[in-house]
Structures are given as C-alpha cells and as structure tokens.
Amino acid sequence: MSFPTPNPEQMRLIARVLSLHYEEERLQSEIAKELGLSTAKVNRLIKQGRELGMVQITIKSPLLRFFDLEREIAKRWNLKKCLVVPAVTGSASTTLNEVGKGAATLLQDAIRDGDTIAISGGKTLSVMIENMSVGTEYDVEVVPMTGGVQGQHYTDVNHIATELANKLSGRAKLIHAPLHADSADERDLVMSVKSVREVMDEARGANVAVVGIGAVVGADSTYYMAHPMSEAERQRLYQSGVRSEFLGHLIEQDGSVSGNSFNSRLVALLPQELAKIPVTMAIASGLEKVEPVAAALNGGYFNSLVTDEHTATALLKEEALHA
C-alpha cells in the first residue's frame, strides 16, 4: 500500500502515534481514544510511518550470532534445519552437553506418535539421551542402523536404542550382528539373516534418523575403537582422501563414499539409504569434527545439523578455504 506524502502536521501526528505505540507500548485502541482517532486511522498511520522509514527495529541479543551461523550453514548445504548452541571455552564436555540438549529438543520437535526413529551408536547420541527431558510419552519405535561394537556398551547402538526408547516410553528393536564383518562375503551373509534384514528394512523405512559424525584422525577417534589400526595405517587412510565416518562408512572430502575395502564389510545402512529418510539429523561437536562434518555435509546425506558455535564458525572457515 502506497501513501501520499504527508504534510508537516501529518508527520507530527504520525510521529506521535509511533511514539505511543512503540516507545510507550500502548495499544492501538488506547492511542485512538487518547488522540480522538479511529482504530483504523491509527493502524494506517503506523503503516505509513513504517513505509516512510520512521521505524527502525533493532534486536540486541548474544544469540544473534548463532542465528547468523545457522542461516549460513543451512544455505550453504541446503539444510532444512541447523541448530547452533553456545560453546563453553575450555570445557569440551560441557559444550557437548549443550549440543546434546539442543539435539534432544530438535528430535522431540520432529517425532510424532507412530514414528520409527533410526539411530547410530556413539558418544554424541549417548549424551543427547542423557540430556533429554521428556514430559510426554511417545508411541515410537527405535531401531539401529548398524551392527554393534563389542566392548563399547554405553555407546553401542543396541544400548543407545534401548535408552532412547526408555526415555520416550517407546519400544526398541535390537540387532544381533557386528558392525564390522571379516570380509565382504561374510557381511553379505550376515545381512541376509532374517532378523538382521528385518531391522535394516525397518531402519530404511524410518521417519527420523539421528547420526553421530566421527573423525578419522586424533587419539579419540571412535572409529578405531571399533576397527583398530596402527598410526601408519591411520595416516595412509587420511592421505587417501578419507575425512569422515558415519554409520561406519568412510567418506572422502567431497562427500563421496570411499572405495576403501573396509566399507564393503559393514553391517550398516548405506549413506544413500540414510539420505532417503525424511528427517536426517547429524550431531557433532569439537574442532576435530570440522573436516568430518564438512565432508559428510558435502555428500548431502543429512538435512539437519546440531553443533556448537566454535565448530560452526570453523566449519564455515574450512568451507571458504575449499570454495
């Protein structure tokens, strides 16, 4: 709507209405009564003042920088949702807890009764569940997307599935198979077992998937807990172009699935199958996860991301270097 240019008296009236409405937080009906105007007239004057540029809204909040990071990351990787939470300098564990809380909130916003939730194992998902505060019971089923890892009880996919189902008052379906088979043929044999096949089919048909992203360098890399390697082997893996791991799959910098033979031995959903699930949420925290997250996002396997401000900032800087 375009208004005619006001004369000085009209400008004064517009300014008076704007002052009462925005500075004194008066209702339009109250302004109309005080100034002897109709409510419709007050509404038009407010709109006219805004059109003339007489109103400037400034929002001051430390959270604005998080919103900027979320917008930039979502735009760059075409994400439906990106959540960036505060980082606590000098405390990786506290920061991870904040990421866990954010992921828990995002997951609870996404699920509905009747949904199937597919999950990976890992420390990040364990922290998400620990920080989940649930006041509602959900009619959901939680299923693994990978086989299990012996000796890693608290981060194993079956334990994660059980704990998440308990938190949501839902049901868990467990998988009785290892994540890593000794050969591609053994992997095919395991995947053909009816009980394993049924779990994988349910995971493929899930409504929501939640996945942790792993690094392939660093002493704390969980990939090597499940698949031990010497330092020399780890270096060769990195030099071959591998930068990320999720669901046990090794991913290269451009997001493509590595041709490494380790991938052919996995009892797990394929990354391309994960990408077909309607809501796919990745969770990661820490500067050691910057390259892994970038690689995974480059593959387009997720449509949602939860991370912390330091990781998010470094992620965009990393991307700028490769642009």
How would you characterize the overall build of this protein?
This protein has 14 helices and nine strands. The protein is α/β, with parallel strands linked by helices and 323 residues long. The protein folds into two domains: 8-51, Homeodomain-like (Arc Repressor Mutant, subunit A), CATH 1.10.10; 64-321, 3-Layer(aba) Sandwich (Rossmann fold). It has a seven-stranded parallel sheet, with helices on both faces. Strands 6-7 form a two-stranded antiparallel sheet. Strand 8 (279-283), helix 13 and strand 9 form a beta-alpha-beta unit. The longest helix is centred in the N-terminal third of the chain and has 19 residues, at 92-110. The radius of gyration is 26 Å and the shape is elongated. 41% of the residues are buried. The model has no long low-confidence stretch (mean pLDDT 90).
Instruction: Provide the number of structural domains.
Output: 2
Largest sheet: 7 strands, parallel
Sheet/helix structural class: alpha/beta
Provide mean pLDDT, rounded: 90
Q: What best-fitting shape do the alpha-carbon axes yield?
A: elongated
- Using the coordinates shown, work out and report the CATH topology of the largest domain: Rossmann fold
Name of the level-1 CATH class of the largest domain: Alpha Beta
